[in-house]
Each structure stands twice: as C-alpha cells, then as structure tokens.
Amino acid sequence: xxxxxxxxxxxxxxxxxxxxxxxxxxxxxxxxxxxxxxxxxxxxxxxxxxxxxxxxxxxxxxxxxxxxxxxxxxxxxxxxxxxxxxxxxxxxxxxxxxxxxxxxxxxxxxxxxxxxxxxxxxxxxxxxxxxxxxxxxxxxxxxxxxxxxxxxxxxxxxxxxxxxxxxxxxxxxxxxxxxxxxxxxxxxxx
Length: 190
Hints:
The protein is an alpha+beta fold. It is 55% helix and 18% strand.
C-alpha cells in the first residue's frame, strides 16, 4: 500500500478537513485514497490500495499541498486534471530577502493593490496563484506554469509590473497565432 505524507500549516488544517469533514471526504472519494490528518503537528498521511494508479496518490498529495499553500479546495481540485500541475516558488530563495519587513513588501508587490497584480498574472498566464507565507503556489498546465513561474521570479527580482504583463500578453498572442496557423500547416501537409 503506497503511503505519502505532507505537512500542512495549522491554520490551513480546517480548510483541508472542511465543514464536518466534507473536503477530506471529497478528496478521498475523488482520488480513491485514505487521508489521515494529525491535528497536533499538521502531518497528513495519504494511502492508496496497491492496485491504485500511482499517479492518483501523487495528485492527492499535490491537492493537500495546494490547500496548505493557500488555495481553496475547488481551485486545488483542478489538479485532478491529467495535464495540470502544482508549482511552488520560494520567495526567500528567489529574492534573497529574509527579513520579515522585506517579505511583507515583496508579497504585497506580487499581490498588488486590491489583488490586481495577482489577478492579471492569473488572467494572462492561465494559472491560479496563491501567495502564502514565504511561498507562491501556482496551479496550471505545463506551459502556463512555466510562464507564470518566470513572471513571479522576475517580479521577485524587481522587474516592473508593466514589463511582466507585456511579456505575458505577448506570449498569449503568440500562442493564439500558433494555434491559428497549426490547422493551416496540417492542411498543406495532407
């Protein structure tokens, strides 16, 4: 029986369990895993039957980690899609800043006034984004995740918001152009 564990911050355990255990039961039902939560230390143990798909228990662990990093359960359950992944960026490691005041300023910069910077990154990259503690968590498809991670890292290193938003918008236009050209290329080759 495969067993994985994850640690969830104490203030996020209630979100993981949900009202009357609803979120925990939903996670177990949708992934076929058993979830055990130790409220004393925030340790979450996930187990699956031997015949279960190995990827399922990994997805369940990623959902637990996503909820622990500030995502709501509905957003975290996006990870059940086959081509959707969780990425976590360590603010301290990327920015090199460790002081509490610096982290507060950097988190504020990532979120923006009334959440506008975060919303813009989400809109332009296609990723969901959560800033929690000293981390930025991202949920999205591989290409979306790469772009959002790059945008977050550039912001953490001091790039202007407008530069990042223009970069993401340009990449989105290029994707749309490539998608429009792809069917034409297929017709020419047939």
